[in-house]
Amino acid sequence: MKLKKITLILSIATFCFFSSKSSCQQNHSKNFEGYLFAYFEGSGDVNLQEQLRFAVSSDAVNWVALNNNKPIIPSKEISETGGIRDPHILRGADDKSYYITATDMYTYKNGWDSNPGIIMMHSDDLINWHHSVIDLAKLYPQKFGNVKWVWAPQTIYDTKAKKYLVYFTIRFKNDPKLDFYAAYANKDFSGFTEEPKLMFSAKYGAIDGDIIHKDGLYHFFFKGNNKDSTGKEIQNGIKQATSKSLQGPWKEDDIYLDAYSKKHTVVEGSSVFKLNNSDDYILMYDLYANLRYEFQRSKDLVNFTQEPEKFTKNFNPRHGSVISITRKEARLLQSQWGGVPEQLLQPASANDLYHFKAEGNPVIKHEYTADPAALVKNDTLWLFTGHDAAGGQSNYKMNDWLAYSTTDLKNWTEYPAPLKVSDFKWAKSGDAYAGQVIEKNGKYYWYISTNWSGIGVAVADRPEGPYHDALGKPLLTNKDCFASTHSWACIDPTVIIDTDGQAWLFWGNGQCYSAKLKPNMIEIEGPVKQINIDGADYTEAPWIHINNGKYYLSYASGFPEKISYSMSDHINGPYQYKGIINEIAGNSNTNHQAIVQFKGEWYFIYHNGALQPNGGSFSRSVCIDRLLYNADGTIKRIKMTSEGVN
User: Fold this and answer.
1) Whether residue 368 sits in one domain with residue 328
2) According to its UniProt record, what is one Pfam family this protein matches (predicted)?
3) Tell me, what's the pLDDT at 4?
4) Fewer CB within 10 Å of terminal CB in the chain, N or C?
């Protein structure tokens, strides 16, 4: 019988990953910084559970599902039954090929009585896959015509044979024993070179095998059991056997490794992988009856920590496997399916850049951004933001500021974080609050606020930085906010260079203040003045821009905040209140804006809490919509959109 083949064209990219389970003996040159988890889902729509999914982590403990936890590949396109279980993922020994094997089984539709075989998949980039369905009963009827189960296939590279060995659990219809069989894959990983043979027979049977090589020894982890003299099972859990060769003989150890075997809490689907840049190995397993996934640690694959640890995750995985990935590979996964944690996307070094496309609003979806400021330089818009440290925060935790650029508002580049609050040694608050960058005399000046520690200024030779503290002390403190009494009055600086070349700084919470800047841009010249706006409910976040000779002072008003504005014929006013530009975002108590003209169009840049599931008042995201003027120069209300400006 010919093997069924389908080519799945899912996207682009070159993707590599590594697992110590591969037993590849070469020295890999990859710089692994994250992890990829292949699994099938144990909750939600039962019609979608037995399908391949991916998740990614930067630390192998906190996981995020890709593709919103939707299937990466529909099972109906790759399996004979319409379902897949127990996916195992492996990087090839040549660093150029990738392999997945899975159980061909759709229990929701067909039950547990039997399944025909396994699925073998291979790829040159992890995105575009070829697959074959291996029906053992049809391919090898003499030996496997009476097969009942073919479960949990996995692959390991045999360095001596220079072939990939596929191994799996077999049960025949007339025999309750569960044994491991194996066969070498052919060159294109579409089938076997020979009929599978018995590989390892545990004393009382076993399922869910996982082999890893360490220091000349193969460790074969599996779910085993013990029975009494009558044949009744009295205990089960994760055990291991060892051998110096994949061909055996295997020495079975009677010790249970998981923390639950004595508690009679069932586990299965064990998988072992090595942590990046560490001597630690992780033994993870599926507590399938309790809908949990936990793990224990080891340095020698013999002695494991006794207290199990829990994963943090936004999905409910069933029997899967984990391998290591590079930052580049994580970004490719992000471009295809989204969901990769920001730690694996953000530039990590001076020469590292992250390129991404904006898909509507929010513009940036891989990290939480707030308090936007913008600078237009030639044909490039530079976006500078605050950085809410995580999703679902219950307070403001902001440690650094971020920088991005675009020439078309669609294609964006993120740069290494150019400035951190720790760069200001005097900023004891540790709060990286709102700021703005402006250019003068070939230098870029970033005015930032640090909550109660004051306003500082940093300088750089390029808009993307890096920036350094230009003063070594605050430029402004609460003492300069003479009409205020609360500790966070000295925040939210905005700067503008007037038509005569004079630079002005505006800032303040509760009251709006302004002052001239000296030509060196790092000192105040003259007295601080208070800006009074008749009829305005000024809260914070001032922004100054000029259009057709008019000065527009926009700001957050009320609380929860909307964006209002006032107009004047002069930089220092008087300012006349004109109304609301942007209504309350609804899911963010704060509002903060930048208004710029870019390539002949005006844009309103703001934040909200729209990035779900964990967006909110303390985990915000930057959005961009068009800003339009009325004939008399007043501003039309912004229409906040999900589509954005694209």
Assistant:
1) no
2) Glyco_hydro_43
3) 39
4) N
The residue type found at 393 is: Q
Q: Where are the alpha helices (DSSP H) in 70-224?
A: 107-110, 136-139, 141-144
Q: Tokens for 356?
A: 């991404």
> What is the C-alpha to C-alpha distance for residues 505 and 294, in angstroms, rounded to an integer?
54
Co-location of 338 and 360 in the same domain: no
Q: At residue 67, what is the residue type?
A: N
φ and ψ of 107, to 5 deg: -70, -30
- Structure-token pair, residue 491: 């925040």
Average pLDDT, the chain: 94
Asked whether residue 646 is domain-assigned, the answer is no
Dist. CA 193–CA 298, nearest whole Å: 36
| Domain identity same for 474 and 338 | no
What single-letter DSSP state applies at residue 52?
Answer: B
Single out the catalytic residue among 86, 371, 464, 492.
Answer: 371
Catalytic residue among 464, 540, 561, 625: 540
Do the domain assignments include residue 645? Answer: no
**The two structure tokens encoding residue 631:** 């004939």
Per-residue confidence (pLDDT) for residue 124, from 0 to 100: 86
What's CA 223's distance to the chain center, in Å?
Answer: 32
- Domain boundary, last residue among 344, 370, 395: 344
CA atoms in the 13 A half-sphere facing the CB of 527? 5
pLDDT over 50 at 468, yes or no: yes
Looking at the predicted structure, is the pLDDT value of residue 135 above 50? Answer: yes
Q: pLDDT tens, 28-47?
A: 457 899 999 999 999 999 99
Same domain, 334 and 379: no
Distance between CA atoms of 505 and 447, rounded to whole angstroms? 9
- Determine whether 371 is an active site residue: yes
* Short-list 76, 74, 35, CA closest to 55: 35
The reply to whether 286 belongs to the active site is: no
Whether 7 shows a pLDDT value over 50: the answer reads: no
DSSP label of 336: H
- Domain edge (last residue) among 296, 329, 344: 344
CB 117 within 8 A of CB 86: no
The token duo for 595 is 């208004």
CA distance 365 to 376: 22
The domain tally of the chain equals 2
- Give residue 38's domain range: 32-344
446 and 311 part of one domain? no
pLDDT > 80? residue 6 = no
Non-local CB neighbours of 94 within 8 Å, separated by 6+ positions: none
AA letter at 531: I
